Amino acid sequence: GQESTDDPAPGQAGGKPTVCLVMKSLANEYFQQMQDGAVKHVQERNDLTLESTGTQNETDVDGQVALVESCITKLARAIVIAPADSKALVQVVAKAVKADIKVVNIDVKLDDGALQQAGVDVPFVGPDNRDGARQSGKVLADLLGRGGKVVILEGNPGADNATQRKNGFNDAVAEGGLTLLDSKTAHWETDEANQVFASMLTAHPDIQGVLASNDSMALGAIKVIQERRANVKVASFDNIPAVKEHVQSGVMVATLDQYGSKQAADGIDYAMKMIAGETVTGWQKTEIKLITKDNIGS
Amino acid sequence: MAVLEVSGLTKRYPGVTALDGVDLEVRPGEVHVLIGENGAGKSTMVRCLSGIERPDAGTMRLHGRPYRPDTAADGLKAGVRVVHQELALLPNLSVAENLFLHHLPRRAGVVDRAALDRSARNLLAEVGLELSPRTPVERLGIAQMQLVEIAKALSGQCQLLIMDEPTATLTPKETGRLFEILRRLTANGVAVIYISHHLEEIFEIGDRVTVLRNGQHVVTREIAGLTTAELVRFMVGRDLAHEYPPVRARERGEELLRVTDLQVTPATPPLSLTVHAGEVVGVAGLVNSGRTEAMRAIFGADRPAAGRVEVRGRPVRSRHPRAAVRAGLSFLTEDRKAQGLVLDLPIAANMSLASLPAVSRFGLLSRSAENRAATRLAEKLRVASQGVRQHVRALSGGNQQKVVLGRWLAADTDLLIVDEPTRGIDVGARYEIHQLLLDLADAGKGLLVVSSDLPELLGICDRIIVFSRNAIAGEVERADFDAERVLNLAYSGYLKGVSV
Amino acid sequence: MTAVTAPRVAGGRWASQVLGEAGIGVALAALVAFFLAFAPYFGTSQNVRDIMTQITINTILAVGMTFVILVGGIDLSVGSVIALCAVVAGTAMTDSGLPTALAVPFAILISVLIGAATGFVNGFVTERWVVPSFIVTLGMLYVARGAAQQYTGAATIYNLPPGLTRFGTATFAGLPAVFVVAMLLVAVAWFVLSRTVFGRLIYATGNNEEAVRLSGHRTSLIKVACFVIGGACVGIAAIIYMARLGVASPILGQGYELNAIAAVVIGGASLAGGRGSVIGTLLGACLLGVLSNGLNLMGVSDFQRTMVTGAVIIVAVVLDAYRRRLSVRLS
Amino acid sequence: MTAVTAPRVAGGRWASQVLGEAGIGVALAALVAFFLAFAPYFGTSQNVRDIMTQITINTILAVGMTFVILVGGIDLSVGSVIALCAVVAGTAMTDSGLPTALAVPFAILISVLIGAATGFVNGFVTERWVVPSFIVTLGMLYVARGAAQQYTGAATIYNLPPGLTRFGTATFAGLPAVFVVAMLLVAVAWFVLSRTVFGRLIYATGNNEEAVRLSGHRTSLIKVACFVIGGACVGIAAIIYMARLGVASPILGQGYELNAIAAVVIGGASLAGGRGSVIGTLLGACLLGVLSNGLNLMGVSDFQRTMVTGAVIIVAVVLDAYRRRLSVRLS
Ligand SMILES: Nc1ncnc2c1ncn2[C@@H]1O[C@H](COP(=O)(O)OP(=O)(O)OP(=O)(O)O)[C@@H](O)[C@H]1O
Ligand SMILES: Nc1ncnc2c1ncn2[C@@H]1O[C@H](COP(=O)(O)OP(=O)(O)OP(=O)(O)O)[C@@H](O)[C@H]1O
Ligand SMILES: [Mg+2]
Ligand SMILES: [Mg+2]
């Protein structure tokens, strides 16, 4: 999904400005959707050339730095970036800003302190992960009632969205008066979540709910629940197609759609505004939507 | 005062006492010969003296001072230099670096290449190797490697020089050269421990001899006044009537192997030879005369550049050993460790490797059949071991050689190519191996025997093909056997313009 | 026995035998004892079944890896190849339009074939051009991963046939069915390696290839066959993965290669080839599985768990090396 | 003495020499030519500087890895150790309260020491108990990663001294300063390996350890020293990482070990030890860096990029093997 620049005019292909979309691993379904949405949107707009790339895996920080460097070398007019790390990308983003390239941050917010230290200000277009997790968790809390016993499956330790979702779940736990029995990482992975949750359930047979930081991990946990015919409900995050059946069947009481496909498109819109001379700063929140049995359709 | 006094030296390995309270005294300026059957404990003694192995009991004194080396470094520091039975060279490194590995000439940690080359050239000249010091060792033939090994031991100061079968792969010329060097060293007071299975060498170079049997000290004697027969009796505990088995007249049968215009490389001359059923054909030549390369090419171990190999009139088309084996060829390699043995498998598995169909059915191995076959062979070859499931790694050098030979006996092919078959084998066992080869010939098999031991070839062959400078310089029939004649042919290729 | 030299038979032969065969078993036993004492619920039958299920995939991969390592090779591509097998076979199951009874066997066949094919490529390139398998399979790691992603466009495949996923949770004589499959594979591999001519040639080739070649065997063929076997095992593991988790995604399997290799090496195999056993591999996989499960149960924090895992791996091989030398001395 | 041993006179020695030394250079040149033709901006000076910066870390790691691999070892822990070095040194810089002029050298020292210490542990355990370095360093991979995470509680350290990050973007004679550091390291390593006695002993030990021991050297010491050097290089790379990216995070460096090993092996080293050169390693690192950069510039899709990377790695070693045999035949 990229149009290459045949025209060597710097940053302008056929008179259209070149915008780089730099993603995390496209092997992740979520980012794939994001990219597809962006490509479609750009076709509709038809006033820019999009070059989109992603890293080999989600933690490939310096791979992503190299991608941004290539964008700078290619003299792109703007860069829309979903950073693999909220701090490690700041230095190269600052380099881009200083090269007079407009930068829009999507998906995970670059760290404010780090941005400040680097002396740059980059607008953020993205969802409120914490609030989303809180909403998802609240559905579970309402269902279980006060004192309901739950566990959290966390994403990669240190990853920003993982931290925020965990915080959001914790908010829901506190607000709903739930009892948190355990909270562990399964590194976003189905297989690991399956193993980790199996042990959790062995150690705490009275678990009533799981707060999973993404759907892949939720799938691993649901397997255990089905296998042991346990009465455990899951609240999750991402809304990938694979969880639909589980939402319908009622095992998964909630997941959260953050409209990834729209996020990059929005980011591109802002980037174009900035190219046109507008000043954009701060957090432009994007839409999130709680998905439950009631609104998932069939 | 003795250079070395050893008393009560004992070394046990799992299941075996390799040295059992052995005493040894070596005087300055003498060549002290150590002999014994395969597995008698000679190399174990060497390993203890050089610091590679720690003895379980006993004491060693060097120049009257207690000597307890923990590592090879300690041995070297004490002035003990060793040529081990197995080559210990670094194939990727140059000859010069190998020679001086123990102490590379350096200036501030940096290798002084000029000095290295200079010293290396001197050493090489001393042992008669005409090689560039920068040649990587992996390019050398096994005999050249052996000479490098010897040269290595001669570099630097030494009080006690130990040589464990240094001449096993050498021809008389190099051996003679080595003896000159040894005489020069002993004249300067250096003591030498010399191990060999070649009894004639012992009489030529040795002053005193110590005989080991089953890890025990049998006798120590002045060599002057000893006879070969006495020596053999000390070694094997019985009399050996003859050095070589009697040669019976045999019918020369059908032609088994015909090699026509075989070129090992595009640059080497074409070779042609034939071997008939019931015939023992020797292959003589000087070190690096190209015998091993020719045999490898015949067997398909290396791809020949040109030429035809026919077995029983049918061409062997493929250039893989598999085709050769299927056509009925066997090949005993000269380098048992690199090309022969599977060190971490038992004796039985090594012996069955070329005859697996015989000990299996539908691809399933029958261990009992394998063990039976191996036991039979091991008895025939008198392999000293703790049984056929013992790993080959723990065997003595000579016994390892017997195991590889056993593999090809088990394969029972029509034609055997054996390259240095008795390398490192004791006199008693050598007689048996010769007998075995002749028995095979009696049974109608053809044999191609490569050996650097000319008396051996003269003793058992019907015909000797002589290699010189990668070409066949001539053939000698049994009726015309004469050492001088063979040697003249062997030198012919190197003496340009001189008529033979 | 060919007693030319009377061998002095030493005692302790039996002790050495037991210790030698047990291999890493001692470390495993110690670990189990520790967790029985300190990890709650560790010994419950539910948890034992969990462990069995959890080690299944790594065991299957490690069995295949044993063949590769025995001939002196290594296969870094298994983590990617399992993803490739899974997405292709998963798509075949969900999209082929065949009835489940046909679609599943068909998918299994495809998975095993793809695994075997990548194994063949790995082995062939390694042998034909005499390059290190480390680097060839590293290349394959990337190729297979990219191919898996390209094939599904990063999408996770779900709604797999219920027949398959039921098998993933089924039990057989009280044991998880997938575990039984792994044990069958272990048994077959053990038989092949220790009782057949092919197995003998594998050990011999890993030990001294030149000697085997000169004995008239096609060592290249043997080595390529081992890579193919390794690949086929990956194909089987891919099916088990889907049966167990009900999904297949192109990012699955990252790092599986290191786990499989670790199991083989902890099980006593030599990376230089020629030494190792499938029983050792099984014990190695058990050790890793028990460790991870026990630490999870003890509620050790993620970071500490990572550290402890590393430390136990090191201590286990050190203990094993110690024990091995001890058993040699005893014999 | 007459030539009883007839040495082969070799023709074409020179040609073989050149081809042999060039090593993977031919494949690299082909790749560069390809990208010059098809990847826009590839040849711009900006991009050349980009490439230099991008290969710096892998080059430094690979130089250290060359030492380890030359003695027949392998170090899988570099990816984790670089993280450990970075977070500890990063913390030292930000929290030590020392003025920048002191804090930075102090942190460099700490980083190198930690790297060297883990290298020592790797080497020591490997040698002392005669266990495969593969498994020891795999254990260290986990231990160091866990320790790094534990140390910062998974937090990323960022406000590093501006002096350091300025160095990360500084140029020296038109070249990125960090790249100059890497080249200096390459030069030193080249000198040590090819000119010093220690270097000869490294090659010799990798070649035939037993023979070197018989020559009276303590091969264990040599091998441990190589692990320590490898570790120290990781410590240096950690500093470069921080200078370049301005952060230190406990999850950085995942998979770096495979890249470093790949560079060394593509550069012609043998994993069995005894063969390889630091120039080859540099070329290997360049090949990987150029490949990744060129594909980025060409805008190849990620999945295809992954596949192409794998394919090029394989093709490069196959070409190299081909060429090497050609050069042997010429000689
Ligand atoms: N590492 C070992 N482990 C077990 N047994 C060993 C080991 N090395 C040698 N032996 C045994 O010790 C005995 C003596 O072996 P040694 O190598 O000293 O014999 P040798 O006299 O040198 O024989 P040869 O003439 O064949 O070289 C043999 O029985 C051999 O099997
Ligand atoms: N691997 C090799 N590379 C290059 N040259 C070699 C190699 N091996 C042997 N040669 C050379 O080939 C020639 C013939 O060696 P070959 O081993 O066939 O001799 P040989 O008559 O069997 O002698 P011996 O076995 O006693 O060394 C020698 O000049 C030797 O240096
Ligand atoms: Mg011996
Ligand atoms: Mg020869």
From TrEMBL, chain B:
The keyword Repeat applies. Its main location: membrane. GO terms for molecular function: ATP binding; ATP hydrolysis activity. PROSITE patterns: ABC_TRANSPORTER_1, ABC_TRANSPORTER_2. SUPFAM superfamilies: P-loop containing nucleoside triphosphate hydrolases (SSF52540). GO terms for cellular component: plasma membrane. The keyword Nucleotide-binding applies. Transmembrane segments: none annotated. Keywords: ATP-binding, Cell membrane, Membrane, Nucleotide-binding, Repeat, Sugar transport, Translocase, Transport. Residues 4-239, 251-494 form the ABC transporter domain. It is a peripheral membrane protein. It is found in: Cell membrane. This is Sugar ABC transporter ATP-binding protein. It comes from Micromonospora costi.
TrEMBL record, chains C, D:
The lineage of its organism: Bacteria, Bacillati, Actinomycetota, Actinomycetes, Micromonosporales. It is a multi-pass membrane protein. One of its GO terms (molecular function) is transmembrane transporter activity. InterPro entries: ABC_transp_permease (IPR001851). It is found in: Cell membrane. CDD domains: TM_PBP1_transp_AraH_like. The chain crosses the membrane at residues 22-44, 56-89, 101-122, 129-148, 168-193, 221-243, 279-297. This is ABC transporter permease. The keyword Glycoprotein does not apply. GO terms for cellular component: plasma membrane. It comes from Micromonospora costi. Keywords: Cell membrane, Membrane, Transmembrane, Transmembrane helix.
